[in-house]
Amino acid sequence: MSSRIWRTLSIGALCGASGLFALGLRGDEPQASDAQPAKPSVSVDPSQLPKQATDEKDKNIVYLSEGRDLWIDKKNKQVVMKGKIAVREGNLEMFACPQQSKEYESIIAVTPRKMESVHAGLLAVGAKPGHPAKFDTKFTPATGSRVDVAVRWTDNEGKQREARGQDWVRNIKTGKPLEFGWVFGGSGFWTDPDSGEKRYQANDGDFICVVNFPDSMLDLSMESPKDWSEHFYEPFTDRIP
Q1: Interior CA angle at 131 toward 125 and 135, to 5°?
Q2: Tens digit of pLDDT for each residue in 102-161?
């Protein structure tokens, strides 16, 4: 068995009386067979991030947002954020999106709005971005460090629970959980031609995708149909709190 260096991003979510939810993203180095560009597809400017602050009680915790809803756990190589359950049934294009974006087609809506801060957190724990899916003369799947998504939450009885992210996504054809993992495509920046302002594209919703988008941060490294009538995946409702 080859050795693996785990790099984890955890996303915590509050959902009414159901308590705290957390998504954990764990990625290892891409294998030699994985296509990687010579340099990352997007460079995150540290000046765009709020000043990092270390938790007074735990020096391993470093906050990446002013609202302290996004942080790094240096000891466990985790990036943590808050969020909530958005949908438990219906058509699905995202596993997770930033709040006030694509909640109607995402299982999780995360609290942080600046996805470039999440990108920076992944870089800090060692993940390497490749590129999002490309739609040129032919389809090219997303590449980057592979990422395992886990969900952690506290149930109504106060018990800590955990599940793989794939186990909350159901393959419509087979009835089984999502059979693929996610890769760190890295999204990209768009520059407003009038103001010159740069915007990280995943802020518009394409955070963790189950349908390919050219601006997704985390995507499946396989081709998925974009037409709603042909989508592969839906929420695995019975498994979602």
Answers
A1: 155
A2: 999 999 999 899 999 999 888 888 888 999 999 888 889 999 998 777 788 888 888 888
Q: What integer pLDDT is reported at residue 3 of this predicted model?
A: 34
CA-only gyration radius of the chain, Å: 17
Residues 6+ apart with CB under 8 A from 18: 85, 153, 154, 155, 156, 241
Other beta carbons within 10 angstroms of residue 104's beta carbon come to 14
DSSP for the chain, written as a single string: ------EEEEEEEE-GGG-EEEEEEEEEPPPTTS---SS-S----GGGSPPPEE-SS-TTEEE-STTS-EEEETTTTEEEE-EEE--SSS--SEEEEETTTSGGGEEEEES---HHHHHHHHHHTT--EEE--EESSSEE--EESEEEEEEEEE-TTS-EEEEEGGGGEEETTT-SB----EEE----EEE-TTT--EEEGGGGS-SEESS--TT-SEEESS----SGGG--EEE-GGG--
Tokens read off for 198:
């740069």
Task: Count CB atoms within 10 A of the CB of residue 214.
Answer: 16
Contact 63, 163 (CB under 8 A): no
Model pLDDT for residues 166-187, shown as the tens digit of each residue: 999 999 889 999 998 899 999 9
